[in-house]
Amino acid sequence: MEKKHFIKKVCLLGDGGVGKTSLIGRYVLNCFSDDYVVSFGTKVSKKVIEYEDVQLTLMIWDILGQKSQKALHGAYYSGANGVLLVCDNTRPETLLHLLEWKRDLEEVVGAVPLVPIINKADLPTALVGADIAAVRTALGHDFLYTSAKMGSGVQEAFEQLGRQILGHPDRPGRFQAH
After folding, report:
1. What whole-number distance in Å separates Cα of residue 93 and Cα of residue 132?
2. Taking CA 48 as the corner, what is the angle to CA 160 and CA 156, rounded to the nearest 5 degrees?
3. Which of 3, 101, 156, 167 is the most buried (most CB within 10 A)?
């Protein structure tokens, strides 16, 4: 049986410094750097993953997290098929801003599959349980906890989003990355 091939655009959204670039680096290149580099504009990375009868190419857009550049965001969101909403375990305001990131995205592309992430799970949390619960309810999705530094949860987050994009959110099994 020949594999079906799909190319899908995925955006990582969240405030500056939450670890979007590090998550991509860990997922695509399996590397991590402690150096913080501000993303200007957007950077696109590619990852091909295979799942049984499907080859899924993710075009992963790392979108700048500065809300002062909101006018540019709409152009970057256009054509998105899915999103990872990323907040920082050590900065409560980044959790609360996820609802705004989602609203801005949906104004451009409508509802798309999403996976909310609490990144930097290897560090002591500054998030309040009630805030996590409120944002989880508003988003309609449970959070995944990731650590780009340690690598935990990163592959799972992208794979979960990939399954949602393909319309198989509860399908067991794993992708094989290439």
Report:
1. 11
2. 25
3. 101
